[in-house]
Amino acid sequence: MDKKNSVDQAVEAVADLGRDIGDYIREQRSNAQISLRQLAKLAGVSNPYLSQIERGLRKPSAEILQQIAKGLRISAEALYVQAGILEQRVGGAVVDAVLADTELTERQKQVLLDVYETFRRENASKHSADATEE
């Protein structure tokens, strides 16, 4: 019985991952004001397949996620994190927002991320020094 329950839990966890990534893609598509049909065309996948991904019935491969990210103009890394393929890196939401901004050039994005990372390092050093003094 215990083995069957753990298998059921594992299957449900994988299904939840599919739903989570599907919900996230649908949300990003809605925010970008792109129809399912438009995103399917931009990503090079069929309408029914993309619909199944969004409904959590299919779990897309890393390659398909990359194509969808390109169609949505967001970082593939953001989708990989949502799909459980990658762990979220430090500063995830801010970094993802900068990378997803379509009004910034690649150079501008890199400068912003460099400044952000510098501030994070300074604050971490300051917190370490404060902790050492106590």
From TrEMBL:
The keyword DNA-binding applies. SUPFAM superfamilies: lambda repressor-like DNA-binding domains. The keyword DNA-binding applies. Residues 25-79 form the HTH cro/C1-type domain. One of its GO terms (cellular component) is cytosol. Keywords: DNA-binding. It comes from the Bacteria. GO terms for molecular function: DNA binding; DNA-binding transcription factor activity. PANTHER family: HTH-TYPE TRANSCRIPTIONAL REGULATOR (PTHR46797), METHYLPHOSPHONATE SYNTHASE (PTHR46797:SF1). This is Helix-turn-helix protein. It comes from Kutzneria buriramensis.
